[in-house]
Amino acid sequence: MLEEATVEGDGERLDAALDALIENAVDHTEVGTSIEVSACVESSKVIVAVKDSGPGIAPGDLERVFGRFARVDAHRNRETGGVGLGLAIAKAIVEAHHGSVAVQSIMGKGSVFEMILPTAPRRLARHHGRSSTGTHAPVAN
């Protein structure tokens, strides 16, 4: 069942944060394997998750993966041209919208990156589409 939810904020910046999570998944997932993007509403929060089937992140590296210039796999980043800013930018955008980011990972199985954003007050629920005050979209619950 789809439930509608509104997140208050800059739709373009939130799109950029999601794009960064997806680009990260693409950069760390082999051709022919899958990337899943999902969204749900839990306890007045919208959770957008990007799940990859990449190599995973070692437990000791999870704390620093959202840091600027972070390179968990420096060899792969050099191959793809990444400089380690995408996840840091995503984190900054989400936090500017009073949200948070999270990651769970299993070595050899892949990672799940989440953007966790508060739902907007009901007054924004009547806005549809993107605007400077809110992004509105149905999400699976």
Beta fraction: 25-35%
Termini separation comes to: 6 Å
The helix count comes to 3
Query: What low-confidence regions span 5 or more consecutive residues with pLDDT below 50?
Result: 74-78, 128-133
Write down how many β-strands occur, each being a DSSP E stretch of 2 or more residues: 6
Write the layout of secondary structure elements.
Elements: E1 2-7, H1 11-27, E2 35-42, E3 45-52, H2 74-80, H3 86-96, E4 100-106, E5 110-118, E6 135-140
Antiparallel strand pairs: 1-6, 2-3, 3-5, 4-5
Helix pairs in contact: 1-3
Structure write-up:
With 141 residues, this protein is α+β, with helices and mostly antiparallel strands. The chain has 3 helices and 6 strands. The chain has helices at residues 11-27, 74-80, 86-96, and strands at 2-7, 35-42, 45-52, 100-106, 110-118, 135-140. Strands 2-3-5-4 form a 4-stranded antiparallel sheet, with helices on one face. Strands 1-6 form a two-stranded antiparallel ribbon. The chain is globular, with a radius of gyration of 15 Å. Mean pLDDT is 80; it is low at 74-78 and 128-133.
Which terms would index this structure?
6 strands; two-stranded antiparallel sheet; 141 residues; alpha+beta
